[in-house]
Design a protein that fits this description.
Layout (H helix, E strand, L loop, with lengths): L11 E3 L2 E3 L3 E4 L6 H11 L3 E5 L24 E5 L6 H14 L5 E4 L12 H13 L3 E6 L3 H10 L3 E4 L13 H10 L5 E3 L5 H10 L3 E4 L1 H4 L4 H21 L20
Parallel strand pairs: 3-4, 3-10, 4-5, 6-7, 7-8, 9-10
Antiparallel strand pairs: 1-2
């Protein structure tokens, strides 16, 4: 069975573990931890990504702890390196996360190029990925939508590649579906869209292209009603996956009647 031929009910398998939901959500930008909890529940997500440099998960015993709202007993916590601009800082951050989370191996690597675009710095990303894989981490990695770079990350040993659809937090949707399709077609590990989703239709399109999942934060947390949007994203991911598995009709420059002409009553 090929990577993208799994049935919708089989869920998303990453680093040997299968998750029911193909939607991954972030934990930042909500007004408070209660809203974080409610939106996460409405999303149906099993994996919650956490910015170790920005969110308290035990580093400060005197501050509210995110893990009280999204407990590890219920969710898989995915520590990420948001805010890191070089390989050294990214590796150190995830090593710290492993200590805080009792040896947790599954992590999300992102090494940014600059503060304006938040594009990935791919040379530093590749360097950090190699170090982390050698150190025993299961690395999901934010990357450019470059098929060559994505393949290099897979060959290093990353357990999932996560190309951006557009700028982080921009809500611009999928700007280059052709590059995503090239990455999907060659990959032997899960491909998840990371960054740029703005609304449910963007998530559905990503899944219809054949992505294995979508990670988002701003699209939900920044909505007027984050809890309702979280539920909408859950439905969009499920619908897009079903549509991909069903197989859409080909696009063509001609009309085709919905009712067959043969055998019609005169």
């Amino acid at each position: 069975m090929q990577r993208n031929e799994n049935t919708a009910s089989e869920g998303l398998t990453i680093a040997g573990i299968t998750y029911r939901s193909r939607l991954l959500v972030g934990s930042g930008k909500y007004k408070d931890l209660d809203e974080t909890r409610l939106a996460t529940e409405a999303s149906g997500a099993n994996i919650i990504t956490v910015a170790i440099r920005r969110v308290n998960i035990g580093q400060d015993p005197n501050a509210p702890n995110l893990l009280d709202a999204v407990p590890p007993s219920k969710y898989t916590i995915l520590p990420n390196t948001a805010g890191c601009y070089n390989a050294k800082d990214a590796v150190y951050t995830l090593q710290l996360a492993r200590e805080l989370l009792n040896g947790h191996k599954l992590v999300k690597l992102e090494v940014l190029g600059d503060e304006k675009t938040l594009f990935p710095n791919m040379p530093e990303t590749l360097k950090a990925a190699e170090t982390l894989v050698q150190d025993g981490f299961d690395v999901m990695v934010y990357c450019s939508d470059d098929p060559i770079q994505a393949k290099m990350l897979e060959e290093i040993g990353c357990c999932a590649v996560m190309p951006l659809a557009s700028l982080i937090g921009s809500g611009m949707g999928i700007l280059n579906p052709w590059n995503l399709s090239l990455i999907i077609d060659q990959a032997k590990v899960p491909v998840l869209v990371d960054a740029g989703v703005g609304t449910a239709s963007d998530a559905a399109i990503a899944m219809e292209l054949g992505c294995d999942g979508v990670l988002m934060n701003t699209a939900i947390a920044g909505a007027k009603d984050p809890i309702r949007m979280a539920h909408a994203m859950k439905l969009a991911i499920e619908a897009g996956r079903e549509a991909f598995l069903a197989g859409r009709i080909p696009r063509k420059f001609a009309a085709s009647p919905s009712s067959p002409m043969a055998g019609r009553v005169a």
